[in-house]
Structure formats: C-alpha cells, structure tokens
Amino acid sequence: MILSELSPLNLLQLTGKILEELQERKIISTSNAPLGDYAEWLYRESYGWNAAGNSAKDYDAIDTKNIKYRIKARRVHSRNKSRQLGALRRLDEGNFDVLVAVLFNDDFTVMRAALIPHAVVVKEAKWVKATNSWRFILRDSVWDYDEVRDCTSILGQIQEQS
Length: 162
Known about the structure:
Elements: H1 8-24, H2 35-47, E1 50-51, E2 61-62, E3 68-75, E4 98-104, E5 110-117, H3 118-124, E6 126-128, E7 133-135, E8 149-150, H4 152-161
Parallel strand pairs: 3-4
Antiparallel strand pairs: 1-2, 2-3, 4-5, 5-8, 6-7
Helix pairs in contact: 2-4
C-alpha cells in the first residue's frame, strides 16, 4: 500500500482502523484523534474560509466578511453514539459568530453537518459547572431552526472529490 496514492477519506478510514486496534489494546481511550482537524479542513475547502491560527480566541476559521467560525466535530461510533460536541468555553463572550458542526459516521464519512448561529447555540447549550464550559449536543432538532443551514451535501461532495 502506497499511502501517497490514497485519498484523504481512505487515509482517515485506515486511521480509524488503526485507532480501533489501539483502543482494543487499551493504548488510547477514544477513536476520535484526527477528527477535529479533518472537519476544519473540510469546511475550509467547502467554503473557502481561512484558518484562524493558533492565537485566535475561541474560533477556528474566518471568512472574507470577517465572520468567525467555531468548528466542532463528533464521530458517531458503534460503541459510542453520543452527539455531544467538545466543550464550548466562554460561550457567553460571543467570540464566534457561527458554530460549524459535523457528525461523522463510524467510517469517517459525513453523517450530518450544519452552520449554527451563535444565538441558537446559546439557546440549546447547557452550562456544566464541573468543567466550567457549555455542553452542546448536536441533536436532529437543531436542524429545525430556520437560522440553521444544513451543509451535509457540500461536505460530502468535498469528501468524494478529494
């Protein structure tokens, strides 16, 4: 197998298998390792956004209109079907305009994806005192908000093309 000849999706699927084996051996505790970076890349490719850089506070990408995007991803796995995204810190400070969220299937293909305005995130998120952060679960009901934009198909197209 020549890795340079594999598509990004094929590389992630291979990575998923490796992560599964490491988890079976109890070397790692989750199988989500490359997910966040891959989600950020997919959205930047899909929408032409720029990476925010490491010094950006609470956002991951920015567009030409200076809209700030916080990108979160979750792999819905056969062993863990949770749709809870990573902790959102300082949500009340409004450091991003849109939460960009994607759920991946077990094989890293896009299950569902959305652009969620900050106001909707605030309405749906729950404060967790123990972690000093906000918990946001990407339930199907999130897509019922008129302001939420479904972007499942565009991310899926980028996945197929790359």
